[in-house]
Write a structure and sequence with these properties.
Elements: E1 13-17, E2 25-32, E3 38-44, H1 45-55, E4 57-59, H2 62-77, H3 79-87
Parallel strand pairs: 1-4
Antiparallel strand pairs: 1-2, 2-3
Amino acid sequence: MKDPEIPFDQLTRFVRVRSEPDARFVEFDFAIGHPELFVELVLPRAAFATFCQRQRVVQMDAAMCQAVDEDAAKWRYGDVGRREANDRE
């Protein structure tokens, strides 16, 4: 946890879109407070736009996405997976 003093409703909400730009539905990861701890969601485009507006989301940047991917590789494959993820760059 970064700061337990921050009230839940003030924690940053993160979104990472996984679907193609022209897809009918938006597949995305949604996290509150910690980008590496997320749920996978699917919404129609209009509902996704409303969701993002109401949640005041922050789009994950490339560095955040890479950190999340490396963390997932570590949990999935152990330290070897983390090293392999770094070697691909």
